[in-house]
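Let's do one together. I've listed all components of the complex below, 225 residues spread over two lines.
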Amino acid sequence: QKEVEQNSGPLSVPEGAIASLNCTYSDRGSQSFFWYRQYSGKSPELIMFIYSNGDKEDGRFTAQLNKASQYVSLLIRDSQPSDSATYLCAVNLKTSYDKVIFGPGTSLSVIP
Amino acid sequence: EPEVTQTPSHQVTQMGQEVILRCVPISNHLYFYWYRQILGQKVEFLVSFYNNEISEKSEIFDDQFSVERPDGSNFTLKIRSTKLEDSAMYFCASTPDREETQYFGPGTRLLVL
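Okay, and this is what the predicted structure of the assembly comes out as:
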């Protein structure tokens, strides 16, 4: 069974702090990795995607990928109350690019 | 900015009835997907569709489910005989290339009574 795992949280950080969200995946051949944000009752919204080992930065967000450790993370700098949401890690399987597996999500709460 | 649209936003049906959920993907996208999310649970892949045929489906997508692209714009998910456990939010997504980001619609909340 190909799985994507995340800590369910809730993760609470004070406003202005760095939030660190982690994800591990079991399919070693996975090639594409995505972070989505989901507000309650809404659809997933793409935050970042990463394909290569290392860091990728976009504004306040940094995605980090380590394929050897099968680990991907998302850092949110200068966290804002509007960042409070559930963050979903998603992975394309190498055996089937058409199938994206989502993790259970980590609930983030940014305290003003 | 182009977006994926879904109708209806909410659907209530009786157990055993057929429902059709509709999606209009972004116009230049070629790959289409359906996902579901039971309340409080994770997003689950149901099916992917390309070139007018199913390219991948999950174990959830049994004979009660079917998908169709009846014209150049709509992409539908049919559940033939709904069960209580089909109650969930159903999301449609599309992408121009299967290695790229999938763009999600706002979802249809299905409630089976």
